[in-house]
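Posted in: Structural Biology > Protein-Ligand Complexes

Title: Requesting predicted complex, zinc ion in pocket

I'd be grateful if someone could produce the 3D structure tokens for the following input. Sequence and ligand are given below.
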Amino acid sequence: MSWFTKVKKPLEAIALRKRIPEGVWRKCESCKEIIYSIELERNFNVCSKCGHHHRISAESRIKLLIDENTFKEEDEGLVPVDPLKFRDSRKYKDRISDAQKKTGNKEAIIAGSGLIENRPVEIAAFNFDFMGGSMGSVVGEKVTRTFERALSNKRPAIVVSCSGGARMQEGLFSLMQMAKTAAAVGRLSKAGLPYISVLVDPVTGGVTASFAMLGDIIVAEPGALICFAGPRVIEQTIGKKLPEGFQRSEFLLQHGFVDIVVNRLELKSTIALLLDHMCGQIVCPLPEPEQDEEAEAGPEEQAL
Amino acid sequence: MAVNYLDFEEPIVDLEAKIDELRELSGKDGVDFTSEIKKLHRKVNRLRKDTFSKLTPWQRTRLARHQLRPYALDYINHMTTGFVELHGDRLFGDGVSIVGGFARFEGQSVMVIGQQKGRDLKERSFRNFGMAHPEGYRKAVRLMKLAEKFNRPIITLLDTPGAYPGVGAEERGQSEAIARSMMEMAVLRVPVICVVIGEGGSGGALALGVGNRMLMMENAVYSVITPEGCAAILWKSCDKLEEASEALRLTARDLLGFGLIDEIVKEPLGGAHRDPVATASILRRAIRRNLEHFRDLSPEAIVSHREKKFREMGVFA
Ligand SMILES: [Zn+2]
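-- Reply #1 --
Done. Output follows.
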């Protein structure tokens, strides 16, 4: 019987695929199960069968984390330029306009303010579909301004990083965004304001090696690739295959570089709780000052 | 004799060999080649000037990686006295691809920190080809804070293909080490002068590059990615190195034009390795001049100068 149940599932899947038009269903990248697109979307692209976290857009990320109708986008007008007049097989300018058409975004990041369970925050979220979420001048500037708005509005900053690293086509301008953003984190930190860095699959290179690793608290989604050098580069360098799970969230947790690994569906409530711990109103009553105790005890003593 | 030369230097090296040959013959059997030698000397000088005035970015990259080029410790030896190398990140190890310590520079104590490549096979492997592990960056941060505590200026010498991409480096937080180094450098209350002396390899170099001034040797390169890496990713080909290095705009002159560096330090004709002592002396004067600029500034002014400098980096519309 067991072999029958095993083959039954794919048959069902094929039947399902035949019955409903493409676009209505999607195959999980991990367990390969066929899932209704609507169901997957409702679940913010987390597979209900195996829990695999599929990538989501910056817009969905904002929808996931920010209370409905409270997001106010900032700096949406910042657009990339081409200081190097860079061209490989294609012009950088063409790659930009393709990415803009494909994503409907002007750059690889969306930034703004909003509420997380009624707590005001400044937030920025990467869009990996825009040139691999790479960081050029605009991304670096928007991240920096997110920290600066947090500083001037006295609010926490949240950055959800999902990026292939510095954008080659802007050369050293891109590299310098690492220093610019890292310095901005330092200024925010000095002012005593919290910064939660959220790492989602994948975060590599110049983004990991700057603001993404500098959060007061670093939260990662399960199974995300988080690294400086990508696995392929390392394999080439050392001439060996890397073990399963190397550079994934759980690996970083084990090695002390991530505070907590959180399922996407619990991300918002976790962030809200952390914000409360770091800067919420103190609700637990503190022991009353000693003077008062003495004052209360005073009359009794006199009575004695 | 000269085994370490690049292909575009070959005609120069050939001519020099010929001069040597004539010199040896000259005087023997009463033959005099003096005028021939003089002529060849002029020719070799013209050729060198010509070759080095129109180096392609890829040729310059290879010059920046030249095996005979002065490395950090060479500059430290030639520019300073009383260098005391200090070791260790106090957490895990030494990180020997980065060297640092107190030294006397132009009459004052400074902290000098450099990314160190190795010359022979043994030292190259000891220094891990100048590719630092996280310990190197954490040691550097420790030394920079030490300098800050005792109010000593900091000089950093950048020369690395990049931070090491390896298993241990990832396990011990290469990204975190680089990120923290940049963040800490940004707020150092003493002047920081950075110099790209050879290869400014991406984040691994920038980790020590958040200074008040960024100087670059004439034949050094500084790039977001190596031409090899860029060619492999964007051209999907290992032999588009000329194209990739051209596109990346990684030469000192390009970067000065973009305002991303502050000054180009001249090298002797043919490159720093032609005369390391003279090169070090040119660099020493350049660093002194730049340090003098910050002598009378308050710690707050020094920090805000540096913060402003990096805040303004980037172009967009
Ligand atoms: Zn699944």
